[in-house]
Amino acid sequence: MRNLMKKSFQLKAAFLFAFALLVSSFAFGQDKKPVASPRDSVSGTIAGSTITINYGSPSVKGRKIWGGLEAYGKVWRAGANEATTFTTTKDIKVEGKPLAAGTYGFFLIPAEDGKWTVIFNKVARQWGAYKYDDKEDALRVTVKTKAAPMHERLVYTVDSKSFCMFWDKIVVPVSVK
Known about the structure:
It is built from 1 helix and 10 strands; from the N terminus they run αββββββββββ. It is α+β, with helices and mostly antiparallel strands.
């Protein structure tokens, strides 16, 4: 009798284990919804410094971006979700002005006339631009945007003399030496 009860218990335990394994494989095997604005980063070398830009990459999705989703004249996180960060391993010159080595919060102020403000803020880790404080700015420069072919997803590039942000039909080029 004792052997029969032991086998019955073992059979029930094996069945429960198999059932739990089956349920968990279905639960974990489900396709996850893609992230709306995935994190991305780009790195390159300019003037002997490694430049790294880490950002959330939103999509246009048929929306009016400039002067719509992103208002003219307001500080913008230059990406999605957490503020974009900009890291330089050596001192550089951005649009001819000095920027010390370090990691910065990177922000933009879009302007309807195409003359945008580029901001390197000493507070690198922030959520969006909600607590942005201009007293913490390490550097501000002005750049002229250019028309570009449509870019559905926001992307940054780094080449030997500059970095650029492409999104919608705009490119924001920033020279570095």
